[in-house]
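Tokens for chain A. Residues wanted.
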């Protein structure tokens, strides 16, 4: 089975560069190639939503030079990728605390979102200045203010309208969620690989999808119940 929504914590750029005796930003540059390769593969595989954790709220605490290079790279990628988005019918979205981004970057994001909003294929979501705790807090405040009924909390999260991830991939061997989609990952399958992000390309992505296909998702039910349901739907 192909997951509807795959989310990726892209980790290991710094170590990838260090292993080659280069600056950390060299790894970030190479990482953008992996973003392109995975997006292309997601289109081929028929995935509907592909999320990339590009910059966490905590990443603001990195050295200023690295933060500004990451922001520069983000703006550059958004501009460079626009023709590819149009060619591949990709809809672009950004999720995160955008009040911390520069006016220029916010403007470029708005443009890319507007131009690609006519596309109907893959939705590519970049999580920028995002934190799962921030998301839950901002949603809780708006949920309470609206007096919304129980069961509708997800509509106030920054990911409103996006189905919860079916598969979460994290590269570089770290096995933690690092404040990504805390609420949304309630029933997500986790896949951890030692491969560093700049080396994660189509064949690595395919391997993750194969592993996902071999899992049985039970959502609290028994394996026997799921087997019966699967038989009935065949
Ligand atoms: C992921 O790679 C990119 C971001 C978090 C922005 P890192 O920069 O975290 O690379 P490592 O973990 O230091 O190797
Ligand atoms: C997680 O990577 C955030 C992103 C991939 C954007 P980090 O490298 O920041 O995570 P920690 O600090 O090792 O948990
Ligand atoms: Mg890291």
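Reply:
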């Amino acid at each position: 089975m192909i997951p509807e929504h795959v989310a990726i914590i892209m980790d290991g750029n710094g170590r990838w560069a260090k292993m080659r005796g280069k600056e950390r930003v060299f790894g970030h540059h190479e990482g953008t190639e992996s973003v392109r390769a995975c997006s292309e593969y997601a289109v081929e595989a028929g995935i509907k939503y592909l999320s990339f954790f590009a910059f966490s709220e905590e990443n603001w605490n990195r050295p200023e030079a690295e933060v500004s290079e990451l922001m520069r790279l983000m703006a550059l990628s958004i501009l460079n990728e626009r023709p590819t988005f149009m060619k591949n019918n990709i809809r672009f979205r950004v999720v995160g605390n955008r009040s911390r981004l520069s006016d220029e970057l916010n403007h470029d994001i708005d443009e890319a979102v507007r131009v690609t909003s006519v596309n109907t294929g893959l939705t590519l979501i970049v999580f920028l200045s995002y934190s799962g705790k921030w998301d839950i807090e901002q949603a809780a405040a708006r949920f309470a203010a609206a007096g919304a009924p129980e069961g509708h909390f997800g509509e106030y999260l920054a990911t409103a309208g996006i189905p919860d991830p079916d598969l979460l991939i994290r590269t570089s061997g770290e096995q933690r969620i690092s404040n990504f989609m805390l609420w949304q990952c309630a029933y997500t399958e986790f896949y951890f690989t030692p491969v560093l992000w700049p080396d994660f390309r189509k064949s690595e992505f395919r391997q993750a999808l194969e592993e996902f296909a071999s899992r049985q998702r039970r959502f609290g039910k028994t394996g026997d119940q799921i087997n019966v349901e699967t038989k009935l739907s065949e």
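The mean pLDDT is 98. Helices lie at 13-19, 24-45, 64-87, 103-116, 132-146, 202-213, 223-233.
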